[in-house]
Amino acid sequence: MADMGRSRSIGRHGKDGRGKRVRWLVVALAAAATVTGSLAATLHGGGTPARARAQAGRPFHHPGVLDTRAQLDAVRRHLAAGDEPWTEAYAAMRASKYASMGYTAKPVADVKCPFDGKPGRGCTEEREDAIAAYTQALMWYFTRDEAHAEKAVQIMDAWSGTIERHSDDNAGLQTAWSGSSWARAAELVRYTYQGWSRPQVRRFRTMLRTAYLPEVEHAWPDRNGNWDLAMTDAAIGIAVFLDDRPAFDRAVKRFRGRVPAYFYLASDGPVPQAPPGGTLKTPAQLRTYWFDQNRYVDGLGQETCRNFMHVGYALAATAHIAETAWHQGVDLWSENSDRVRAALDFHAGYQLGDKAPPWLCGGRIETNMGPDVEVAVNHLRNRMGLKVPEAERLAVHQRPAGTDDLFVAWETLTHADNP
Predict the structure, then answer these.
(1) Distance CA 90, CA 396 (A)
(2) Which residue in 102, 152, 211, 388 has the fewest CB atoms around it within 10 Å?
(3) Domain containing 299 — which CATH number?
């Protein structure tokens, strides 16, 4: 059940070659044939072939991975007026290494990421380069300085011309973190900037289709739930960028199964729901999976007694998935508002300093949550009119929310009070 922490640094190694592009093309063609076939549509929740064809015909809204043009235009207006917290959040982003015009990508062919921070190749570099591409894309949108768009393209092209695979134990999680940021960056650049050529875009699409999507669609039901949620975050963003309706629907289905198995509500019964497709069934097995917690209350997370950092990953990924689906006309927020609302306030209160009672994790909690709540607070409060007072306090306390250097970046800037 182990996975990497926020700040573990890994090494790098890589190569390039014409052969991998041929392999990518073969895999891409096979993947396209699979996801459009009627058998695949049925197996992956697409329903009948007729229904799958109807779903495939629905256009996606672009840009629509986490951010929309309307949201970013609202931020531009706030920046022009010098409004807060956006002005301070923009200044923090602009001052970061990710916004530097001197930023240089460090792509590798095989990103090799083992468990527990053991030496690997390219893990930190890939995650940071993906965040840099997204940061440069945001800088381009807010400043209209094409040099930032070109820098984003430069970073994305470097990776699409190099990477072949992800390997070792943490491949799924690594691919999830970096894939989430790649999809956001690519979506924004492709639909707001004219300088990314069609061949370059096609090569990047092939990269996401072959080196990322298969990894993030792999099921890990018995691992800690932040894995499934982070992987689904990447999968839904990649699906939108690829205009892949079956992949989008698979991500939505996976989300609907995992969120109720990660965040507890009393309506679930005396024990939490088991992760779909896994081997954990009995109350004793679930108790062990929930890090030996034996009292379940609204908002408790599967990894609460592990540490709040990993719960924060899950909260952020849940919000990202629901937000991207919302932009595409699927309201996952309403389906899960009670769980997300309870989880936000439950953890935010302790993160802000409330003392843990003896029944919660034996009275010992590790409150190391990152900048993970802005997207959810914005939707619940500003779109749904729901109160999340502790989470609102935490959001304000953390502002301007920066980046966790994994897959969360600049969400005060993009989502604070931005319905």
Answers:
(1) 16
(2) 102
(3) 1.50.10.100
**Could you give the number of structural domains in the chain?**
1
Residue 287, in any domain of the structure: yes
* Residue span of the structural domain in which 154 resides: 69-415
Indicate whether 21 belongs to any domain: no
Q: Classify residue 26 as exposed, middle or buried by CB count within 10 Å of its CB (0-12, 13-18, 19+).
A: exposed
Amino acid at 211: A
Kindly tell me if the per-residue pLDDT of 140 is higher than 70.
Answer: yes
> What's the rounded Cα separation, in Å, for the pair 94 and 191?
22
pLDDT-based confidence at residue 56 (cuts at 50, 70, 90)? low
State residue 263 phi and psi, 5-degree precision: -110, 120
Phi then psi for residue 296, to 5 deg, are: -110, 130
Q: Can you read off the two tokens belonging to residue 305?
A: 């007694």
Spatial CA neighbour of 274 closest among 234, 231, 228: 228
> What does the alpha-carbon distance between residue 273 and residue 146 come to, in Å, rounded to a whole number?
49
Residue 11 in any domain: the answer is: no
Q: Which residue, 54, 168, 60, is CA-closest to 113?
A: 168
Q: How far is CA 46 from CA 33, 36, 54, 210, 232, in A?
A: 15, 10, 10, 22, 17
